[in-house]
Write a structure and sequence with these properties.
Oligomer: single chain
Shape: globular
Helix content: 25-40%
Structural class: alpha/beta
Bound molecules: pyridoxal-5'-phosphate
Number of helices: 12
Length: 349
């Protein structure tokens, strides 16, 4: 059980024995969307007949995969695999394409689940340090491995890397390149065209962030049909339930709602960044729905984390190299942002 507790702490920012009540708490630690999902999603969920719940869902989520293929300009569902959230797809990629003992390459820092999954799988993890601007160092492209996981934009930095770097990586890396685009709708560009151009590219997306559906557990991966058919061999039989499949199709059909929410979040992100810079925090340029704030002064970042928590504001602190003097803060509503900035002013000024 060593990893399950670690996973909880890493993924949720959960502190055992210290979980606060969620009412009256400003929760800015897991990069959820502060705005509700599309009304069309809610309507699609309501339309589900009680009787249909007796039946198993479509094991292949074909309608959902077809909707994704159409939205992203791919010929059909054979280019897409659906996941119970993107985390399931990351785990699936590991068990489908890596053998124990293989090397898994990623950056440091990055989404901690890549390392956890590699270790659980008995694989070797090679974490290459990003440079001071959280960009890929030259040596990264020469690192050999079976799978490379690349967060773009990355977490917890919020920073993206140039598309040309991803192109170079796909062209030089001998194994598979998983491009984790969990936050890409908040960014200026994406790599959704890469699976068409590179046979080793897999692009993953989640509905937990831009689509405001973290509670629903929906993710997707796009890759060449030869790779998708391998995923389908190892996936759980009924990985997406009836409700998630219906919600996923409806969300894809109301892209405008998602884009409007993203626009609001990005506007607040810019205002939040501005406020943080004024308080003396360093803020690497975020292309995500969160910011990493760096603070080398007093009180130390960990104390700021605790002081915010005492005021009912939960952000993310990482007890990890290069991150001890940083906090990761999700972009909330404008009101939450005002309260956060006011609390920070009290704590650091
Ligand atoms: C970089 C990154 N990838 C993947 C995920 C997983 O998303 P999901 O909720 O779809 O499992 C997250 C969630 O926080 C994330 O930060």
């Amino acid at each position: 059980m060593k990893y399950s507790r670690r996973l909880l702490e890493q993924v949720q920012g959960y502190v055992p024995g210290e979980q606060p009540q969620t009412a009256n708490v400003i929760k800015l630690n897991t990069n959820e969307n502060p705005y509700p999902p599309s009304p069309k999603v809610i309507e699609a969920v309501r339309q589900i007949q009680a009787d249909s719940l007796r039946r198993y869902p479509d094991p292949l989520s074909v309608a959902f995969r077809a909707a994704c293929a159409e939205r992203y300009g791919y010929p059909g569902p054979e280019w897409v695999v659906a996941g119970n959230g993107m985390d399931e797809l990351l785990a699936m990629a590991m068990r489908t394409f890596a053998d124990p003992g293989d090397t898994v390459v990623t950056t440091y820092p990055t989404y901690t689940l890549y390392e956890t999954l590699a270790l659980l799988h008995g694989a070797r993890i090679e974490m290459v340090d990003l440079d001071d601007a959280f960009q890929l160092p030259p040596g990264f492209f020469e690192t050999p491995g079976r799978i490379c996981f690349l967060g773009r934009p990355n977490s917890p930095t919020g920073v993206s890397i140039p598309r040309e770097d991803v192109e170079r990586l796909c062209a030089t890396f001998k194994g598979l390149v998983v491009i984790d685009e969990a936050y890409v709708d908040f960014a200026g560009d994406h790599c959704m065209d890469f699976p068409r151009r590179f046979e080793n590219a897999i692009v993953m997306r989640t509905f937990s962030k831009s689509f405001s559906l973290a509670g629903m557990r929906i993710g997707l991966a796009v890759a060449r049909p030869e790779l998708i058919s391998e995923f389908l061999k190892t996936k759980d039989s009924y990985n997406l339930d009836i409700v998630s499949q219906a919600a996923g199709v409806a969300a894809m059909g109301d892209y405008e709602h998602m884009l409007a929410n993203v626009k609001r979040v990005c506007t607040t992100r810019d205002r939040l960044t501005d406020g943080l810079l004024r308080l003396g925090f360093a803020v690497p340029p975020s292309q995500s729905n969160f910011v990493l704030v760096q603070w080398k002064k007093t009180p130390p970042a960990k104390m700021i984390f605790t002081a915010l928590r005492a005021r009912g504001i939960i952000v993310r602190y990482f007890e990890a190299r290069r991150l001890q003097d940083a906090l990761r803060i999700s972009v909330g509503t404008d009101e939450e942002t005002d309260q956060l900035l006011a609390a920070l002013r009290e704590i650091v000024e």
